[in-house]
Amino acid sequence: MKIYDIMQIMEYLPHRYPFILIDRVVELEVGKRAVALKNVSINEPFFQGHFPGEPIFPGVLIIEALGQTGGVLVMESRGKERHGSPVYFMGFDRVRFRKPVLPGDQLLLEVSILKMREKVVKLAGVATVEGQRVAEAELMAAFGEKK
């Protein structure tokens, strides 16, 4: 199974530091599912304010990381000519945060395609740390045009 490192991920996604939130894609089944890793480091810029003395990885960024994992999956599933095109969030359903994510944790982000049309995709995502579910959501996104 192909592993995607950060340089390959940046071929698929338009995101760059400090907003690229996945480090590696470790599994990808075209048209079906992908699994990515995010190593959570105390050096991340948002920890200065979220929260001083009690750093917690922001929940909205967990959802963004699930979305970026889905972005790689969708781009790989739709073909090379789409790589680097934007994918815009349209909505979230069934979002739940189960447990705080802390510096030193490794997020395992699993995303599967529920429905994919020409311009819209619906994904299901689950984030875990050491086998424990920390967040989950259904995500809807629209495909933008590459500039």
Please tell me about this protein's structure:
This protein is α+β, with helices and mostly antiparallel strands and 147 residues long. It has a single domain (6-143), classed as Hotdog Thioesterase (Thiol Ester Dehydrase, Chain A, Roll). It has 2 helices and 6 strands; from the N terminus they run H-E-E-H-E-E-E-E. A 6-stranded antiparallel β-sheet has the order 1-2-4-5-6-3, covered by helices on one side. The model has no long low-confidence stretch (mean pLDDT 94).
Entry keywords:
147 residues; six-stranded antiparallel beta sheet; Thiol Ester Dehydrase, Chain A; alpha+beta
Biggest sheet features: 6 strands, antiparallel
* SS-based class: alpha+beta
The overall pLDDT average reads 94
Distance between the termini: 31 Å
Principal-axis shape: globular
Give me the number of helical elements. Answer: 2
Strand order of the largest sheet: 1-2-4-5-6-3
Q: What is the CA-based Rg, rounded?
A: 15 Å
CATH-level-2 architecture: Roll
- Poorly predicted ranges: none
Order of helices and strands: HEEHEEEE
Portion of residues within helices:
10-25%
Number of strands: 6
For the record, what is the CATH homologous superfamily label?
Hotdog Thioesterase
Examine the coordinates and then state which fold CATH places here, giving the name of the CATH topology.
Thiol Ester Dehydrase, Chain A
* Number of structurally distinct domains: 1
Strand residue percentage:
35-45%
- Text of the CATH class: Alpha Beta
